[in-house]
Write a structure and sequence with these properties.
Structural class: mainly alpha
Order of helices and strands: HHHHHHHHHHHHH
CATH class of the domain at 51-228: Mainly Alpha
Largest sheet: none
Strand content: under 5%
CATH superfamily of the domain at 51-228: MetI-like
Radius of gyration: 22 Å
Number of helices: 13
Shape: globular
CATH architecture of the domain at 51-228: Orthogonal Bundle
Oligomer: single chain
CATH topology of the domain at 51-228: MetI-like fold
Length: about 270
């Protein structure tokens, strides 16, 4: 068939390999097991903790790391890039241990945080900080690519009128690439939703308001598997997949589907539609 070759066929197999575990979880979770405990209020509360903390982490990442993405898209900073890539390459329990000691009374900084009531262990703020740390590289690299591909003419024009780089960033570049930036933020949020290693150490339970005693869903599913059996864990997992799928669909919708490919086609000879 026209347009279908070995690349298409192997790609189809790759998609199938990815889809099979998801389909199995959905089928066994909702049809075979359909555990009432897996659909309990506790599970929904855990999903709420995960979505809320991940969205808050994505917002913090946008506010804190957007200037760095812009800087790295315009200038070479080898050390800065290596440091910003580090959270993606270290085992994430290390991240949990690091924040645990940062907020510990054993350190001067930890004692300062404790004195102002900003504890990190088993708190919402500790959970959000850990999620922000592990999801940051996803947003940073995506936003960096967005800024690198943005035309420099509007930027140079604004700077020639006396605008600072910070003003150019937030008045020209970010509004001009708002869909891509939102898509990058949602991608970072989806990465945060899947985190387990650091969360299990720094915030095994969220003991602070408004999620008193709740757990992130990754921790809750793991403990359900160990203490309540695979039926409960599989049903909880199937439910979480539905919420994750909603985020993925939002990313595709905001990002405009395969818009990047269509734009690139117009840049090549013979590629104009």
């Amino acid at each position: 068939m026209k347009g279908k070759d070995w690349v298409w066929a192997i790609s189809l197999v790759s998609v199938a390999i990815t889809a099979v575990p998801i389909i199995f979880i959905l089928y066994y979770g909702f049809v075979v097991f359909h555990s009432a405990l897996g659909l309990s209020r506790t599970v929904f509360l855990s999903i709420g903790v995960t979505i809320f903390s991940s969205a808050l982490a994505a917002l913090i990442i946008f506010l804190v790391f957007t200037p760095l993405a812009f800087e790295l898209s315009r200038k070479t900073h080898a050390v800065w890039e290596a440091v910003s890539d580090l959270p993606a390459s270290i085992p994430h329990p290390i991240v949990g241990i690091a924040f645990l000691f940062i907020g510990s009374p054993l350190t001067p900084f930890g004692r300062l945080l404790t004195s102002i009531g900003f504890g990190l262990f088993n708190t919402l703020q500790g959970l959000v900080l850990a999620l922000s740390f592990v999801a940051m590289p996803i947003y940073l690299r995506s936003a960096q690519s967005v800024f690198a591909s943005s035309p420099v003419e509007p930027e140079n024009f604004a700077m020639s009128l006396g605008a600072s780089r910070m003003k150019v960033l937030y008045s020209v570049l970010v509004p001009g690439a708002s869909r891509e930036i939102i898509s990058s933020s949602l991608t970072a949020m989806s990465r945060a939703m899947s985190e387990y290693g650091s969360v299990a150490i720094i915030a095994n339970y969220v003991l602070t308001y408004p999620f008193n005693g709740a757990q992130a869903v990754s921790v809750q599913i793991y403990q359900s598997y160990g203490y309540l059996g695979p039926g409960v864990a599989v049903t909880s997992s199937a439910l979480m997949i539905l919420f994750s799928l909603a985020i993925v669909i939002a990313i595709r919708f905001v990002g405009g589907g395969n818009l990047g490919y269509r734009n690139r086609r117009r840049d090549f000879p013979g590629g104009r539609q």
